[in-house]
Write a structure and sequence with these properties.
By secondary structure, this protein is mainly alpha-helical. The protein has a domain of 135 residues. 53% of the residues lie in helices and 5% in strands. The protein has five helices and three strands, in the order αααβββαα. It has a three-stranded antiparallel β-sheet. It is rod-shaped, with a radius of gyration of 47 Å. It starts with a helix and ends with a helix.
């Protein structure tokens, strides 16, 4: 074989090997993985997520506080209404005795089922629960004869409502505990006794004035 033929054969072999290697190089470029995210970008995303979670927690906390205040105020209004109903029922029981008999009930059950007459009387529609404790365990307030004259809640929290009460509840102003909201019915005799207890302070002054008038009139008569 001549030298020219050998050179031509080598050139053909080189060309064929280079043409086969080009697709592999192209494939290797296509399969090359993408570069990983930069560490700074990942840190910024993490901090943003923490900030968003913190804002969400603050918003939920504020909403929970507002809801708690609204709920407590609503319970206070329910307590004022429920206690007033029980007080009214005690007064109705006291004044509705057969034959004009004035006695207090012995239990809350007698307010819903009054068997003193031929017909059962319901002074209270049903046995109400204490809105502050969500139980029917009221503090029962009894008079000197053991009769039930009122109720009070056993809750120990401080009321949010401190003023602006109705006339019947004006004693509740400035209370430090819900247990100081005492819904007590006072009979007309007790109310009269309370008013009479204020009068003796003025009585000596009136008696002294009368004595002075009587002594001056008697002196003028003796002179005549």
């Amino acid at each position: 074989m001549s030298t020219a033929v050998r050179k031509a054969t080598l050139r053909m072999a080189v060309l064929m090997s280079s043409s086969k290697a080009l697709p592999l190089a192209g494939r290797s470029r296509k399969l090359r993985p993408h570069p990983a995210p930069v560490a700074d970008e990942r840190g910024f995303t993490y901090l943003g997520l923490l900030f968003a979670l913190a804002l969400l927690g603050l918003a939920l906390g504020a909403a929970g506080t507002v809801w708690s205040v609204v709920r407590q105020r609503d319970r206070e209004q329910q307590l004022l209404w429920t206690g007033g109903e029980i007080r009214r029922a005690i007064g109705h029981y006291y004044q509705g005795g057969p034959g004009g008999l004035r006695v207090y009930p012995r239990s809350l059950q007698e307010l819903t089922d009054d068997h003193r007459g031929p017909v059962i009387v319901r002074h209270l529609r049903r046995a109400y629960r204490d809105p502050m404790t969500d139980t029917d365990d009221w503090e029962l307030i009894r008079g000197s004869d053991g009769g039930l004259i009122g109720v009070a809640s056993k809750a120990k929290g401080k009321p949010m409502k401190q003023q602006g009460f109705a006339e019947a509840d004006r004693a509740f102003q400035g209370a430090e505990c819900y247990c100081e909201w005492r819904f007590v019915f006072q009979s007309p005799l007790q109310q009269g006794a309370g008013k009479a207890a204020v009068m003796p302070a003025k009585t000596p002054v009136l008696e002294l004035g009368r004595r002075e008038v009587e002594s001056s009139s008697s002196g003028s008569r003796s002179r005549r």
